[in-house]
Amino acid sequence: MNWDEVKGKWKQMKGDVKVKWGELTDDDLDQIDGHREKLIGKIQERYGKARDAAEREVDEWSTH
């Protein structure tokens, strides 16, 4: 799924994101609002991951 699709379906996908990255809060998900860069940043912040690791996780998640 490309990021235009993710952004368009963000409200429906928030549950999937919450399952994958449970430390993200509802406020985080509202702020992210389907933006790939914001999701990567929040994952880095909450999980202490390097940017490339967070990008890899997001890309793997979005293609499944």
Summary?
Belongs to the UPF0337 (CsbD) family. The protein is mostly helical and 64 residues long.
List keywords for this structure.
YjbJ_sf; 5 helices; CsbD; Protein Yjbj, Chain: A; UPF0337_stress_rsp; mainly alpha
- The averaged pLDDT comes out at 94
Estimated share of beta-strand residues: under 5%
In sequence order, what are the helices and strands, one letter per element?
HHHHH
CATH topology: Protein Yjbj, Chain: A
Helical amount: over 70%
Using only C-alpha atoms, the radius of gyration works out to 10 Å
Number of domains: 1
Q: Globular, elongated, flat, extended or rod-shaped: what is the shape?
A: globular
CATH class category name: Mainly Alpha
Catalogue the unreliable spans. Answer: none
Number of strands: 0
Sheet/helix structural class: mainly alpha
